[in-house]
Structures
1.
Amino acid sequence: MQGFPTELPLNGIGDAAAFALFSTAIQSRSARLGDVHALAHMDPPPLDIAARLVGLNAEFNQNMLHREVSPFATEVEARVIDWLAPLFGMRCGHFCSGSTLANLTAIWRAREAGAQCVIASVDAHISVAKAAHILGMPFRAVAVNVHGRLNRTQLGDVKDAVVVLTAGTTGRGVIDGLEPVACRWLHVDAAWAGPLRLTRFSARLDGIEQADSVAISAHKWLYQPKDSAIILFKSPDAQDAISFGGAYLATPNVGVQGSRSAAAVPLMATFVALGKSGLAALIERNMAHAEALAALIAADPRFELKQPPETAVLNWRLVNGATDAVLAKLAGTTSRTQIDGALWARQVAANPNADITRIWAQIASAS
Ligand SMILES: Cc1ncc(COP(=O)(O)O)c(C=O)c1O
């Protein structure tokens, strides 16, 4: 933070100087997610059309809480929900700032429907246990099978539960079996892999249409800047139970957030600019990247590949036990996770500009 004030400044340096100071720091001290070597996290380089419209929305300080402030964005959000919900067998929903909130919203709605506890696999995202905690509901984590999917034989009594299945687990990118569960409410956390529904891999998410609600992070595999996610519901009136009117509001406030940005605008613009086919091509390129890297890893006897990538996430480790030391050299290219208490490298192919030959060369030479 050299060059930045350590105390709250009494007098300012002016817009131009402040912009120069901060923009230089942002550009020099942020990871380049679109770099040919970047393949580490569920954070894509956002598409230019989307990033530019986030900036324009900010200039107008759009607020989805007040229709009269954001008439265009309000119509856009309704249209984007109308476009996307049917892909998941859903009928209504709204945007929110991330799938942490989308999961909280779904579990809150499930509680309003009578669910008394939350059940998910041990590999479900922490936001699920966190939501249960916030809502005062007991949380039960079910073991996963050898493939990393929730082990259905251990589900037990679910009739009063909200069961959360994950489509694309955070650590391994695994899709839980999406067959129906006889529970009070079935939620699918498709934060990561939901966008596969736009692609030729759509069938991997078959069964999702049986859910009562679905969460998707648009700031992950729809290449949007943060904060952009969607919570979708099957029942057309599902949002009534999570909407609150107020004397100062023209229309009831739906969901957890009050004021929120017009994140649907950059997403709709992305679809208009690229088409569904253009977005699908980007996601399919990421799938091909993950498969290519998995093949290289599997062919090298120094490495162990955990499983073939199902949703462009893969895990590997070194058979000589040096994974930790190698990961320290690969920060930025590779991330880490624990599987069954052991350390594994984690690659997430969210970057369409990645160059797998160069990434593999870097991994191989660090090993
Ligand atoms: C499966 C899954 N669910 C939920 C989340 C939380 O999403 P967000 O970071 O958008 O709040 C994540 C984040 O990585 C995730 O991987």
2.
Amino acid sequence: MAHVVIIGGGFAGVWSAAGAALARERAAGDTDLRITLIAPNDHLVLRPRLYEPEPDLAKVELRRILGPIGVRHLRASVSTIDTDRRTVVADGEEIGYDRLVLAAGSRLVRPHDLPGAGCCWWTGRGCSRTSSARARVRRSKPHWTSWASNTGSARR
Ligand SMILES: Cc1cc2nc3c(=O)[nH]c(=O)nc-3n(C[C@H](O)[C@H](O)[C@H](O)COP(=O)(O)OP(=O)(O)OC[C@H]3O[C@@H](n4cnc5c(N)ncnc54)[C@H](O)[C@@H]3O)c2cc1C
């Protein structure tokens, strides 16, 4: 049985998983395909919606998306890809693949030498950091005013 392995549970990884599942469905039994998505996170975070009032709502459980389309979610981090042997190592477990999709996103470089970046740097990449940034802003006194607002909640 052919095995498609996808590394990453963000938009790119989930979309790839859905695409592979659709191809399998369209093959209607002609293709015996196993699909595994490997990512350490349990949720797909809808980053474009993190500016909204309750960022914790801007996420969807991966199992709710992947379960119905027959994609296995392995909750792990990949440390090694061996393209000669067609294997990956995820949390110590070696997994073979026939096709590999690398959708591990990008890694942020934090400028720690920038004053204030250590404590107050908000990347907008995750729900919990966004919630704590929002709480911090609510607690602080406003230092500036602007007619400009963020997208989707323009007010006068
Ligand atoms: C605040 C904000 C607002 C945005 N608004 C918009 C918008 O309006 N429109 C738009 O088009 N784009 C927007 N973007 C950009 C968009 O969100 C990103 O381009 C997109 O999320 C990237 O998706 P990705 O799947 O490539 O990577 P990511 O979402 O970063 O996903 C990477 C995945 O790989 C996993 N991973 C990483 N390393 C490993 C490993 N070693 N092993 C296994 N898994 C691993 C991670 O856990 C994660 O699941 C916004 C981004 C931000 C931060």
